[in-house]
Write a structure and sequence with these properties.
The chain has about 130 residues and is an all-beta fold. The protein is about 0% helix and about 45% strand. The termini are far apart.
Length: about 130
């Protein structure tokens, strides 16, 4: 059993930055690839980025490339999502999710591969 808790969301002006954290507890965190998803009001949930269990693969959505960066610190059981140059269209609830034993983040956009999800953290980008 793995529990995930997101934090770091909030209200930020366009062009600003936030760093989200996803902390895992309960089982070998470094066994899991971790992905960030987001869901805006009235829209379907979409994948943002993924980091493989060994940290070597970090695919991301085209909409966030060059602005968002994912990283992990297995010693702290934490995955980070650094979000820069935030725009109003980035407003959403951000979720992290864990998939066991995926060394490449292959198929990372498929929500049904993830065994565990966090409760989400709200990010609002507005002036």
């Amino acid at each position: 059993q793995l529990q995930l808790v997101e934090s770091g969301g909030g209200l930020v002006q366009p062009g600003g930055s936030l760093r989200l954290s996803c902390v895992g507890s309960g089982y070998s965190f470094d066994y899991y690839s971790i992905a960030w998803f987001r869901q805006a009001p009235g829209k379907e949930r979409e994948g943002v980025s993924c980091i493989s269990s060994n940290g070597l693969s970090t695919p991301s959505a085209e909409s966030v490339k060059g602005r968002f960066a994912i990283s992990r610190d297995n010693g702290k059981n934490t995955v980070y999502l650094q979000m820069n140059n935030l725009q109003p269209e980035d407003t959403a609830v951000y979720y992290c999710a864990a998939e066991p034993a995926n060394y490449y983040c292959s198929g990372w956009l498929l929500e049904n591969v993830y065994d565990y999800w966090g409760q989400g953290t709200q990010v609002t980008v507005s002036s």
